[in-house]
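Listing S7. Sequence submitted for prediction.
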Amino acid sequence: MTENQHTSDNRHHLAIWCRAEVFTFGALTTPPPPDITPSSLKSIVKYMKKSNTAGYPKMNYMLWRHIACSKLHMSEELAWMYFETYSMLTNTSAQRRIQTDIQVAKANSTAEIERLKDSRKVDSLAFILLLFLQSFHQIDLKSTLSRDEFVYLIYIENKFFESNYFRWPNRKRNSDLDARKNRIYDEQSHQLFIQAHLDDLLNIISDTSESNNHENVQSATLSMDAVNALSYIFEGTLHDNLRKIFPLHIIIQNSSIQHEIGINKSIVPFKNLSNLIRRSLIANPFQVGQTMKRGTLLPLPFNNPTHEQRSGRVLSNSNFADESHRFVLMTMINRSLSDQVRPKAICCIII
């Protein structure tokens, strides 16, 4: 880091990290179709923009189904899964999701269900970024699986969501948070993935016309629509204050950051934004690893006196997290609660 960069970082104390849920629940463990590549996603962005209101700035499911099945050669079921996964991880209110579910449940025919699905829309560029994240599990996928299984649940806006089965950290294993074994909830794995693929990520939604020309990429720019889409993945803080978290597009509205990266008339230089994110990127400060290190240990009551509290731990990050990032972590609960109503262990709940 140069002296100028160091001075700039000290001025606004910028820290940026990846939203954990887009990796934990957005990056499906289902192997992505081989046609999902940076170059193909770049081409899809161009295609969406040429499709007028059906594809940009919001894309309806009818167009996505055509792209997914005809151009990416995936099944319609997988196409809908990606579409629904994106919607689940947005700020769409629970009430709106419930209304949509009720409409589908009341549908009298398959044609009516398809009509309701076709009317659904997602933010085009952010959805493309979610597709790019599907490559997260392409490397060393087998190491994330185990016979020692449990259910990983998340509670968002009065609704439970259940991920695939994964091994939970065991105190008898020396490196349970190692990316090779538990990449699904390892915030350092998320950080390393972004560091390795940041330029590809930015290039997909940039205004450059060449996807494989290094010089064109480095001189490219991004629109504010593209920066807004990046907020689907990135958030952070300006003043080392974990109680005040902002999405990326709000962060770069800071006057000193705008001056530093050279924003001109809502045009963001690719190279400067890449450098800013790269040097400010940290591991997510609220997730599993940090909660195990810094969280508050909560009492674990048992109705059965034969249970030993040491067999399970419940920790909370409420002592350092803001309201929207509060997290309760339960470890080794499956053995202690084996006789309870629900036989599967709840290992993680967001409250």
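Caption to Listing S7: primary sequence and predicted structure tokens for the chain studied. The first strand starts at residue 15 and ends at 18. DSSP finds 17 helices and 13 strands in the chain.
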